[in-house]
From TrEMBL:
Source species, domain of life: Bacteria
Ranges of compositional bias, category Pro residues: 49-59
Compositional bias annotation for Low complexity: 35-48
Renumbered residue ranges of the record's region Disordered: 35-60
Name listed for the protein in its UniProt record: Septum formation-related domain-containing protein
Organism (species): Mycetocola zhujimingii
Length: 198
């Protein structure tokens, strides 16, 4: 019984010391600027974390503006809607692409396009910011048909996007995802995920 009373007294002393320690600054008239500043900094950090992260970090796959593919023939790069098979193909940065039927052998496919951001008033996030995210966007679920892609062991993903504030101001807001084979061999069939009709 004596030990229980002693143990209870020790616990009460620790509780009293803790309480006194938390109230000490206010007892001496201190405004507690150091703890408040620390609390403000701690509170501000989570609030500020999303701010530097630009809108394009995770554009949703559902934001497809139009359903492709466009008909076979030659088309300007920004006329592609997603799903177009391309032959020939040397770079995703070409000004024009020759679209072919996906049932024929082709060098590449532009499998997906979507806006960098869904906010039409958003400022240009910068080329470096978009470049840092493009591989994630182009490998996101819903971009590539993983079952069809499983037939190839040498697929490579490349993406294009607005490279300047001038392009952005002119309305070029989409990124484009291209699939080709690193060996240069042809693809057959489509690797694009079928998009629901709008």
């Amino acid at each position: 019984m004596k030990w229980v009373a002693l143990g209870l007294a020790v616990v009460l002393v620790f509780v009293a010391l803790f309480f006194l320690g938390t109230r000490l600054p206010s007892l001496f008239g201190s405004s507690g600027s150091t703890p408040a500043a620390a609390a403000t900094t701690t509170t501000a950090t989570p609030t500020e974390t999303p701010s530097p992260t630009p809108t394009p970090t995770t554009p949703p796959v559902e934001t497809v503006a139009a359903i492709g593919p466009v008909a076979p023939g030659e088309h300007k790069w920004n006329a592609l809607l997603g799903g177009e098979c391309l032959e020939p193909y040397t770079t995703p940065w070409a000004e024009k692409f020759a679209v072919v039927d996906c049932a024929t052998a082709h060098a590449a496919q532009m499998v997906f396009t979507a806006p960098v951001t869904s906010d039409p008033a958003a400022a240009y996030p910068g080329e470096a910011e978009i470049a840092a995210e493009i591989s994630l966007w182009c490998s996101a679920p819903g971009v590539l048909d993983s079952a069809a892609a499983g037939a190839y062991s040498d697929l490579q993903v490349q993406g294009t996007y607005p490279v300047s504030a001038e392009q952005w101001a002119e309305g070029e807001r989409n990124y484009y995802c291209f699939i080709s084979r690193s060996t240069g061999e042809a693809l057959t069939g489509t690797l694009a995920v079928a998009q629901p009709a709008t």
